[in-house]
Amino acid sequence: MTLLVEALHLRKTFGETVAVEDVCLDVKAGEIFGLVGSDGAGKTTILRLLVGAMQPDRGQIEVCGYDISRNVEQARARLGYLSQKFSLYEDLSVLENIRFFAEVRGLAASEWLPRSMEILDFVGLAEFKDRRAGQLSGGMKQKLGLATAMVTRPTLLLLDEPTTGVDPVTRQDFWQMLIRLVSNSNDGNNGQQVSVIISTPYMDEAARCSRIGFMRAGNIVAGGTPAELRALLTGRVLELRGEPLFLLRKIAGEDKDVEDVQIFGDRLHLRIRSGTAKEVIRRLPRQVTSGQGRVAALGMVPAGLEDVFIALSESSHGGS
Amino acid sequence: MNSRLFSIIRKEFIQILRDPRTLMMILFIPVMQLFLLGYAATTDVKNVPLAVWDQSRSPESRKLLDAFRAADYFRIAYDVGSEDDIRELIESSDARAGLIIPPDYSQRLLDGDAQVAMVLDGSDSTVGATALSTARLIGQSHAAKLMQEQAARLGRSAGVEPPLEVRTQVWYNPDLVSAYFMIPGVIGMILFAITSILTATTIVRERERGTIEQLIVTPIRSWELVVGKLMPYVILSLFDTLVVLALGNLCFGVPVRGNLGLIITLSGLLLLSGLGIGLFASTIANTQQEAMLTTWMTLLPAIFLSGFLFPLEAMPAVLRWVSYLIPLRYYLVIIRSLMLKGVGAAALKSEIIPLAVFGIGIMTAAALRFRKRLD
Question: Is this complex's ipTM strictly greater than 0.95?
Answer without folding.
Answer: no
